[in-house]
Amino acid sequence: MSPKPKKTTQLKHLVTRPELSFLMEAHNGLSAKIAEEAGFEGIWGSGLSISAALGCRDNNEASWTQVLEVVEFMADATNIPILLDGDTGYGNFNSMRRLVKKLEQRGVAGVCIEDKIFPKTNSFIRGSAQPLAEIDEFAGKIRAGKEAQIDADFVIVARVEAFIAGWGLEEALKRGEAYRQAGADAILIHSALRSPEEILAFKKEWGDRLPVVIVPTKYYSTPTEVFRDAGFSTVIWANHAMRSAITAMQKTVKQIYQDQSLLNVESEVVTVGEVFRLQGEAELEQAEKLYLPKHGKSTRGIVLAASRGQELGDLTKDKPKAMLDVKGQPLLSHIASTFRDAGVKDITVVRGFKKEAFNLTSLTYVDNDAYETTQEVVSLARAKDALSGQTVISYGDVLFKKYIVQELIETTDDFVICVDAAWQSSRNKGRSADFVTCSQPSSKRAFYEKVTLRDFVTDGERSDVAGEWMGFLKVSDAGAKVLKATLETLEQDDKPRFDGMKIPDLLRQLAKDGHEVRVLYTTGHWLDVDAVEDLVLGASF
Ligand code: SPV
Ligand code: MG
Predict the structure, then answer these.
(1) What is the pTM of this model?
(2) Which of 44, 355, 392, 463 has the smallest C-beta neighbourhood within 10 Å, fewest atoms?
(3) Annotated catalytic residue within 58, 346, 413, 534
């Protein structure tokens, strides 16, 4: 398929081709798009409609640059040409030159100017009282416009208002001819009569000197065949998108006002889905896939929150540790929002003890109903469906800063854990914690080289301890597949062992199976909630 010609060339063709063409009024990006979707080949940027939509009169109350802004939105929203109703050109020949230049820059294919005096009044309001421009002055404006255009196909239509002002056929023809000689691409002959007699008389005398454009707003009952037979070039349906919008808006708004309810209007209006479609939402969704960084968006989160948290005594009698209040919100809610801030939106929580206490929405829940007789690995296995693509696994009782998750996401290794190198000052030092030995301790060198996990140890006093595991495991897409398969094998081969496994046991198993577990050193900025005072401390997160 050959590419569509530029908009100026399209408009020039519509106006000059022998076959009758139609321009549909639009007054903003949305109505322009609707006109295009209906099948129209071109748009009339109506001065009346644009001003009405802006809430002002068709008397150049909206400045020409404000009109320019509107018409730019229309041009951006569509692929068909726009002929702007440029009123009188908003000033003299110099204003016209600048107008043409700016319209070309903003993708508008042509402009129609009328031979009245700035500021103009709509032709249907006291038309006969409206002064017309001097012929020479107006012809000079056309010449200036034609000479200002850079694109040879930019269209300038000269609108003759002689009939509107009550000056008759002879004056209309005289003006049309002067404007033709000044270089206009077409003549728009306007009439406020209920019958087409004036425009038909004009066309008969005019012949084919230049294409003739008409606006049958007042003589709307004339069959279109009459225009076709008379050899007109273009029919402009000048204000019907704007008028139909008014009808619809008045009806809907009145109904809502009366009812104080949306019930009677919902089925009468388009869905918001249709609004999104017209706005091109689908294209944006595709583009996001192409251009947005993948890591955050496509990373899932799994939070293991099945255990009660016995160590907290009566506090966890009726709800699990993950649902205990920290600064007015459950611990889990803090965890979820940190995940989300880091770009992890799809979060699955494994519930167990008092699962009915989990009342946070927009999280996916899966259950480990055997939470009393099983350990963390079984809980993780219950979230197997969520284990696809890059995934960050954490506990439901650990608070942390978002950069920790972001750093995990940015690594490409298949298995990555976070280790706190400042474990000497950890609150967990005297408690049972998961200390690790690694391929090398945290140091400047470790920043540049890959550090891997050797083993988990419980004795924090050992000289080879490199830090404390913070409870995070990130798996890559490939890592998630390995992990899933490992969970399945473990469950099948040795169910009692499987039931008793904690995440460090699983990591050991992975290492035993020959998978490298990468270590990311950080210092602090996380909190394992194991005691009442931790809940108070958590408020600073
Ligand atoms: C417009 O649509 O703004 C026009 C056509 O200029 S008319 O309102 O008929 O004058
Ligand atoms: Mg107008």
Answers:
(1) 0.67
(2) 463
(3) 58
Q: Does residue 518 have a pLDDT over 60? A: yes
CA 7 to centroid of ligand 2, rounded, Å: 21
Ligand 1 atom with least separation from CA of 239:
2
Q: Ligand 1, from 25, 58, 157: best to mutate by most atoms within 8 Å of Cβ?
A: 58
What b/e sequence results for 462-475 when a residue is b if at least 16 CB atoms lie within 10 Å of its CB, and e otherwise?
eeebbbbbbbbbbb
For the packed helices 93-105 and 135-148, what is the interaxial angle rounded to 10 degrees? 30
User: Which tops the pLDDT comparison, 453 or 143?
Assistant: 143
Expressed in angstroms and rounded, the spacing between residue 23 Cα and the centre of ligand 1 is 13
296-538: CATH class:
alpha beta
Work out the mean pLDDT of the chain and round it to a whole number: 91
Expressed in angstroms and rounded, the spacing between residue 389 Cα and the centre of ligand 2 is 58
For residue 185, what are its two tokens?
Answer: 């691409």
Confidence of residue 457 (pLDDT cuts 50, 70, 90): confident
The listed CATH number (3.20.20.60, 3.90.870.10, 3.40.640.10, 3.40.50.300) that belongs to domain 7-247: 3.20.20.60
Delimit the domains of the chain by residue range.
Answer: 7-247, 296-538
Is the pLDDT score of 295 beyond 60? Answer: no
349 lines ligand 1 (CB under 6 A): no
Active site residue 229: no
Overall average pLDDT of the 119-127 stretch: 89
CA distance 520 to 452: 9
Q: Which residues on adjacent β-strands are paired with residue 26?
A: 45
